[in-house]
Design a protein that fits this description.
single chain; alpha/beta; Rossmann fold; four-stranded parallel beta sheet
Length: 326
């Protein structure tokens, strides 16, 4: 028997989850995203109980297969799976047969053969989860692939925004930083546009998309290089992590100039709406993307994003692993 909050989520708008895999947000319908968010609310209620576990996925095996380092995504998926009663197998490329030359297809085939039902996968190559999904009957959840997509991060970000703002229709969301290489920005853009938000990508010209401009129902992201102008009257400001290799590759003139022009600090945040939300997918390079005062200020939802990540990932595991019950 399903737990009450989960049974209620099952009937959201009469929509049933039928997808074997979650690879990105671009193909999800608004109704499917609504179902994920509603289910996540039920999961958050489960997490708030004195005993914050259910046995809904007892007998299900979830494997985390990470070819890149991760703290938040991997840990939250493990907590989410265990909170639903699933068995969890953790694998990394380091120390596995990958070091002996085992291919990705071989690895997912092995996991399927030992009885794995869901594989949560992070890979440094864009498209790797899509390849894996074609070669296994196990469900694949994309935990981040190269510079392409990070759908679970986008869904937890969306959940956090909707939780605080209600409707996102007409809300201004500014995503600032290294958008060009950001899988988080891409997946967020698809989801936000489907919810009616006005999305602005802001950053140095060298770190803005050259050919990729998400468009939904004729609405598309806008590009900006001046953060002081872009942030005006914003409802949400999301800063992206600046990876150190971008500095070495000459994509920014200097770290000092980047901080001067694109760091979200108190003066800049005051140009947004007074109750604007501040977000960051983490980990934060404090003093670079965000000033310390902003990172730990009252408008910061960074810790809420991490907490909501468990509820959203519980929802996804539940919907995908138990889709035959929905």
């Amino acid at each position: 028997m399903l737990d009450a909050p989960l049974a209620e989520a099952d009937s959201t708008h009469g929509v049933a989850w039928t997808r074997k895999d979650l690879l990105d947000t671009d193909t999800l319908t608004r109704a499917e995203i609504d179902l994920v968010l509603q289910t996540a609310r039920g999961m958050r209620e489960v997490r708030s109980r004195p005993v914050s576990k259910v046995s809904t996925l007892r007998g299900t095996t979830v494997a985390t297969l990470f070819y890149e380092q991760s703290t938040r995504t991997r840990a939250s998926f493990e907590v989410a799976a265990k909170a639903l009663g699933a068995d969890v197998v953790n694998l990394t490329a380091s120390g596995s047969s990958v070091e002996k030359g085992e291919t990705l297809i071989d690895t997912v085939s092995t996991l399927e053969a030992i009885g794995t039902d869901v594989i949560v996968m992070r890979h440094h190559r864009s498209g790797a989860p899509f390849l894996a999904a074609r070669h296994t009957s196990a469900s694949i959840i994309n935990g981040g692939d190269g510079t392409h997509a990070h759908p679970t991060q986008a869904l937890l970000d969306l959940f956090t925004m909707v939780d605080r703002l209600g409707s996102l229709e007409g809300r201004k969301v500014v995503i600032v930083g290294d958008v060009f290489h950001s899988r988080v920005a891409r997946s967020n853009a698809w989801a936000l546009l489907k919810y009616g938000a006005d999305v602005t990508f802001c950053g140095p010209p060298t770190l803005l998309p050259r050919y990729f401009v998400p468009t939904v129902d004729g609405r598309r992201c806008t590009m900006a290089t001046d953060l002081d102008e872009a942030i005006e009257d914003a409802d949400v400001v999301m800063a992206l992590r600046l990876q150190k290799e971008r500095q070495r590759h000459g994509l920014i003139p200097s770290l000092r100039e980047y901080i001067s022009r694109y760091q979200v600090n108190p003066a800049r945040l005051r140009k947004a709406k007074p109750d604007a939300l501040l977000m960051h997918p983490g980990p934060v390079n404090e003093g670079i993307e965000l000033s310390p005062e902003v990172a730990h200020g009252a408008q910061s939802l960074i810790e809420a994003q991490v907490a909501n990540g468990v509820a959203v990932r519980m929802a996804l595991l539940y919907l995908i692993a138990a889709r035959s019950r929905v």
